[in-house]
Structures are given as structure tokens and as C-alpha cells.
Amino acid sequence: MLENGADFLLGITYYILYGRLGFSVDIDEINKGSNGQDLRSKEEIERFISDELKRPIYVVGASTGSDTHSVGIDAILNHKGYNGHPGLEAFRGFVVRNMGSQVPNERLVAEAVRLNADAILVSQTVSQQDLHIAHMTSFVDMMEAEGLRERFILICGGAHVTAELAKELGYDAGFSKGSYAEHVARFLVSALSTRGL
């Protein structure tokens, strides 16, 4: 055990490797989103909403539970976005409510119901002792207990979230590092068009 009870650090290791490749890299593959979908431009997504959906997409998001980190949810939702990629607030056709951090599950769901939202975004950054998994699981459990799970598209995100983990926990999609608002928007328009909404 490490000092100060920091034994949780033993399960995570990051490496940065430098070297030459004996093969080529397909840049188009790198530009695919976390769920393997082609990245559409902001303009293409806005045109799809206008021409195909013919109504706004309502999104509510927050960092839930004890998680105080709002950088990830802000990058996806806020107008400014991140790294030159505007957030969903900057997209025509999206109505966005960013509730910030440390939002109780009940409050997030109540706001989604009040706005008749299409999607709820749950952000989790803190991963010590798998706290992110506990928070995301309790959210889905509460949605199912209230009979609201099928009413919303549920998306989770965070540094330690994968698409596979998201599905396993009961979410429709999960996004991690390297994801931008375009990835989330692309998934949302695809999911809504599939559902016929």
C-alpha cells in the first residue's frame, strides 16, 4: 500500500511512446468518433436537424454526484467548446441546459423531465475506487426505477469512460478523451432519426 492510502493508483498506468512505424496510418480512421461513426461537420449536423428532424434537440447535462469537475461537460455543451470545436450550444437546432457539477441525480432527471429533453448527458471524471462507475450506475438504476429509462437517450462521458463501459452500465453511448461536441451531436441525430423522433 502506498502512503496516504493511494493504492488505487496501482491499477492505472499511462505510457507515451515515440517511434517510427513500418506501416501507414489512415487519417480518416483517426477522425472517427468514440463510437466508430464518421465525424460530420457542424454545418452538416445543423442541416440534418433542419431538413430531416425538423425540430430542435433538447439536451440536459451535468457532472453528477460528488464529482466537482465540469471541464468535460463544459467542452461538450458550452458555446465555446474546446480545442477549436464549438460545444452544442453553438449548434443551430440544439437547446442546451448545462447544470454544472455536483448535481444530484434527482435534480438532473427533474430538469430533463421539465424541459422534455431528448437526451441526458452524465459526466464523470473522478475514478478513485471506481467512483465514476458507482455514480453512473446509480443514475441508470434510478431512471429504471422511475420508469424513465426509455424516455431519454442517455450518454455518459469522462476520461475513463469507454463506449463498451457505457453500454454495460445501461447508457446508449459513452465518450472519452478525444471526443468533441460533433461526436455527441452525430450520435444524437442518428439515434433520434432511428427512433423516428
What does this structure look like?
This protein has a 5-stranded parallel β-sheet with strand order 2-1-3-4-5, with helices on both faces. The chain starts with 26 loop residues before the first helix and ends with a helix. It is globular and about 45 Å long. The protein has one domain (3-195): Cobalamin-binding domain (Rossmann fold). It has 197 residues and is an alpha/beta fold. Mean pLDDT is 82; it is low at 1-14 and 27-37. The protein contains 7 helices and 5 strands. Strand 4 (153-157), helix 6 and strand 5 (173-175) form a beta-alpha-beta unit. The chain has helices at residues 27-30, 42-53, 71-77, 105-115, 131-145, 163-169, 181-195; strands at residues 57-63, 94-98, 119-123, 153-157, 173-175.
CATH class: Alpha Beta
Strand segment tally:
5
Most strands sheet: 5 strands, parallel
Which whole number gives the mean pLDDT?
Answer: 82
Q: How is the CATH topology named?
A: Rossmann fold
Measured on Cα atoms, how large is the radius of gyration?
18 Å
Query: CATH homologous superfamily name?
Result: Cobalamin-binding domain
Helical content (DSSP H or I, runs of 4+): 25-40%
Short description:
The chain has helices at 27-30, 42-53, 71-77, 105-115, 131-145, 163-169, 181-195, and strands at residues 57-63, 94-98, 119-123, 153-157, 173-175. The protein has 197 residues and is α/β, with parallel strands linked by helices.
